[in-house]
């Protein structure tokens, strides 16, 4: 072989080898469909891919659920999602996640409070994460109401009944705690009593007014709730366990298919953690100081970067 032919063969070989290396590199950057897979959770990549970027999060304007929903939305938006946070009633919250018109919610109180919703929709939703393991519910009175310590104390109690017009001041009619209260009234024989539905905000306004005047009042309450941080309240004993004994667990519940459609969002929801101290930090600014829950969520993220890093680990 002449020197000229030798150099030509060498040049062709090097060109082919370079093209082979380039092809291998491209295979690492694209999946089989030609989509960029740099965000996939494989071989030490940068994290789980976002997938579907537009998410809908329904919530009911309850004490914990409002700031927590906005916090989850803020964390998801921080990694690249667009989250539509929608205030609804309890029924539409469950039905929208079940039928896929919403993606997830952070407000499933199980097994007692939302038992009827779970029975109706359990085949269409997924429990993603138990975020609180004890969330007790009960009828409650201010602690200065000395002679009322149990639901049983309400039965045929003319003096106390007359003092509150035989009325239990409730929240929105679709709330699970309202259904529990109706059952409690039947089981404890509170035939003279009536349950008035309104909204949580209206109930709290009535409670504040009575509390400031040291007047008696009976309301359905639950923990965590910011009221216990600013008012001295007592939850009435419930010997029959109508309100679930030691309390429900609170779950994040998602529509079926969210894990495949928005893998990074699902991973964040799985990694999200919550405790009483955290919720009690989030609630008062929203409800006692009337701050925008979106602003409260942003401030919480700034104050707790370690938590945000934990929740988004493997995503960004």
Automatic annotation (TrEMBL):
Task: List localization entries.
Answer: Cell membrane
Question: What UniProt keywords are attached to this protein's entry?
Answer: Cell membrane, Membrane, Signal, Transport
Q: Which InterPro entries match?
A: ABC_Gly_betaine_transp_sub-bd
Keyword Signal part of the UniProt annotation: yes
The ABC-type glycine betaine transport system substrate-binding domain, residue ranges: 53-302
Pfam families the UniProt entry points to = OpuAC
Q: Which PROSITE patterns match?
A: PROKAR_LIPOPROTEIN
Q: Which residues form the signal peptide?
A: 1-22
- Entry keyword annotation includes Signal: yes
Name the predominant localization.
membrane
Q: What is the recorded name of this protein?
A: ABC-type glycine betaine transport system substrate-binding domain-containing protein
